[in-house]
Amino acid sequence: MPDQVDEFNAYRERMNEKLLESNSRLIKRMFNLDTNAYAPGALDVKTKELLGLVASTVLRCDDCVRYHLQTLYKHGATQQEVMETLGIATLVGGTITIPHLRRAVEFWETLENKG
Asked: CA torsion sign, 37 to 84 to 10 to 14?
């Protein structure tokens, strides 16, 4: 039985392919912009992903939160770094972000358990 990480990745990959197959220049450019925005620059990738995690949590985008958590895990972020970042997101976003924090912690735990 697939876990939530596998399900998320399979869905994301399948739907991204469909979106890109539409041949929409605007969609392709947005994907490209997103990819390039998180490339190393004055800020390293992990820092940019931590910033993305805050913004995604404040905007209450669970898919975005999962994506940033997964990328952070791959880049060696620690649980302490993630929790501190989610704390900032809660401060900025308010109590309405708490349900998203719960799902974020659950997803992070799944990533750690998959190891």
From this structure: negative
* CA separation for the pair 37, 52 (Å, rounded): 10
Cβ count near 49 (within 10 Å): 24
User: pLDDT tens digits, residue range 32-83?
Assistant: 999 999 999 999 999 999 999 999 999 999 999 999 999 999 999 999 999 9
3 state SS for the chain: CCCHHHHHHHHHHHHHHHHHHCCCHHHHHHHHHHHHHCCCCCCCHHHHHHHHHHHHHHCCCHHHHHHHHHHHHHCCCCHHHHHHHHHHHHHHHCHHHHHHHHHHHHHHHHHHHHC
| Cα–Cα distances in angstroms (integers) from residue 55 to residues 17, 21, 48, 97, in the given order | 25, 28, 11, 11
Number of Cβ within 10 Å of residue 74's Cβ equals: 12
Q: Please tell me the pTM assigned to this model.
A: 0.93
Neighbours of 61 (CB within 10 A): 14
